[in-house]
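Students often ask what a holo structure prediction actually looks like on paper. The answer is less mysterious than it sounds. You provide the chain, you provide the ligand, and the output is a string of discrete structure tokens encoding the 3D arrangement of the protein together with calcium ion.
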Amino acid sequence: MDRTRIVVIAALLALAGVALPLATAVHLAQQRAVAAEQRYLQQLARKALDRAQQSFADARSVLREMNATPLPPCSDAHVRLMRALTLRNRNVDDIGFFDGDQLACTSAGAAEPGITRSKDDFITADGIGVSLDMTPQASPGIAMVGMAQGRYKLLIHPVRFADVLAEPEIDLAIALSDGHLLGSLREPLPVGVRRLLLQTGKADDTLLYALERDEHLIAVAAEPRSRVLTPLRREMRWLLPLGALMAALIVAVVAWGLRRRLSPLGELKMAVARREFVVHYQPLIALATGRCIGAEALVRWRRPDGSLVRPDLFIPLAEDSGLVLPITDQVIAEVVREMQAALVSDRDLHIAINLSAQDIRSGRVLAVLAQALQGSGIAPQQIWLEATERGFMDADAARTTINRARAAGHAVAIDDFGTGYSSLSYLQGFALDALKIDKSFVDTIGAETVTSSVTPHIIDMAQALGLQVVAEGVETQAQADYLRERGVQFAQGWLFAKALPAAEFLAFVRSRQAAAQGQAGT
Ligand code: C2E
Ligand code: CA
Ligand code: CA
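The corresponding structure tokens follow.
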């Protein structure tokens, strides 16, 4: 998958991973808070209804008792009884006795003349006349509820109907089932709550409310929805940024990790850890006989998807990062594993292994090689080592490694000769076995270019130094013929074979040997 896409997807996942649970938590908290508040309002409405029922019950019993008294109307004893009942009943604020429709006396004594009985606004099912907005004589400022039966009328303060302890934001009200408001805890009653009681219009969705009813009464408890949501919204205001911050942090970490893993170096590290390197073998041909005398081991990186990556694409990075050392180790192990049988059965065969400049400088590769060869039956002479000019930069270290390698029995070749700055005379300071002429010089053979004159000189001087010569990148028979005539012993190139997997290389060796024998026989 494309790197940026992976990073973007990871980022989105991280954002969603943090924002979603947070948003869900806030949403759930909101729902729970609303549900809890709803239950609370329901309780309050229930209490208000109970309270109103109690007021009605008290009024009924007082009216029954008064209507049944045999005491002479407005006598001292009669007034005393009215006062006693008023005092005893918290819900009854005053009692009045009517003579016809004239108020004759109240619990306070004889009434002022001229007060007439107001009409009932409605009559309850059990025959009690209810009048709203009564203004009592004693305290004219307050509108009372009147409840009348027979010759008596009780005055009840409207708050008695909804006299329940509640928070200041909560509105409580009691009405008759037809919507007539009996009383409310607070004045004035908000229009929304009034509408709820009258059951007209659409319910106000800024209100959270609960209704309780019996056959005569409706109780409502309501409060502004904002009372519940405000604290939650306040929490959301810091929870969401916190979530976003966390998501950003996760995104950063994920992106960082992905970049590390997806970077070429990260991938190469993984490849080394997973031992994803395989070796192909490019045959080396003795120009005089046409026999295959061995091969150069060329590393390839087999990606998990099966594709092969050429060394030019990862060896430079491996060299810069030091990963080339474990890669060399893996190449050595592969060569021993795949070529052991062939090398043991044919002592004339050799495999050339490429060493990096770091392998040459540290010399550590020799111990790895010795360890790998131990007990394998492969002779050290069957392993050649190739080093490029860059490996000779640290002359002392290179000399030490080369001498140790040769002392162990390996042949050492200078690779890509002519592409760097080193002169043949510089090479005299190193004890080498072979020189590989770079493909760029082989390419000039037959072509009339400036460098074409250089190739024979290199061959001559290499021979003068006693080095065996291997020509690289031989693609035409003309090149091969020229090189053979010039005394070059070995060649490799697509004229003979490309780099081959182990089994194909071994098949190639067998066919070449058979052909050479056939030729020798004729
Ligand atoms: P090199 O050591 O000079 O290897 C020869 C390269 O030339 C190989 O490319 C080979 O496939 C290619 N070649 C051979 N004959 C012909 C031909 O006739 N025509 C053309 N056009 N090309 C030909 P390859 O395998 O891609 O290797 C590239 C370079 O990677 C090597 O150059 C070497 O410097 C490096 N390398 C390969 N294997 C290893 C290794 O195991 N360790 C280290 N340190 N470097 C390696
Ligand atoms: Ca080489
Ligand atoms: Ca080369």
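DSSP finds 15 helices and 20 strands in the chain.
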